[in-house]
Amino acid sequence: MRDNNLMFVSVLFAIVAYPAQAEYNKWNGVAFSAVRTISSLVDSPKIIEKSKIYYSQIGTRIEISEGTTKTISIVNYKKQKCWFILPDKKIYYEIGLNKKTRQCGESEIAGFRPETKNPGIFFPRPCYGYKNMKALGKNHVMGRRTSKWHCTGGISGSSVKQWYDPILKMVIREVSDNKITEASKIKLARKPDTHQLLPPYEYTKISLKFQHTLFRR
Description:
Layout: H1 4-12, H2 21-25, E1 32-40, E2 46-56, E3 59-66, E4 69-76, E5 81-86, E6 91-98, E7 103-104, E8 132-141, E9 144-152, E10 160-165, E11 170-175, E12 179-188, E13 204-205
Parallel strand pairs: 6-13
Antiparallel strand pairs: 1-2, 1-12, 2-3, 3-4, 4-5, 5-6, 6-7, 8-9, 9-10, 10-11, 11-12
């Protein structure tokens, strides 16, 4: 049986470095929803995670289903709040958002924002963090017109290919030697959906000091 407490720790307390925050603060693309799929290319291709994403200038939302457990993480820039929600228990807890850094609490928490899983996808410009970038022309990906890039000179000499969507103003696909991360079922929103960026009113807010009870069976 999967250790739910281990999953909780990995989702909530995996602190990631966030030197590129200024890039996100300048993002001015359109609001959209999508399905993010992470597939392993080791041995034979297989999906290792699939999640629903909502992205806008006033906040982000990510829904992850892992086994029988579903989690929802919301960052609301307007209300300056971050919420972590467990729908099966109808509970959530709240963390204050740092207005200046747009981080949840003192440090960014992996899982709260779509891009923390992979700084390449959903990044406002291609090849960020790589020394070299080469344009590979125009491509259609998931029904969307994109520009394709080869990024080299990353950490330990790593390289990837990325597909950048000029309408969303974000990378929507990245392929490395052992993994594919991509957005599909992309739907544009005429205006930000504030309903997506709030916890359900009927759910119970709990204190962080009782977080150990979140996965108690």
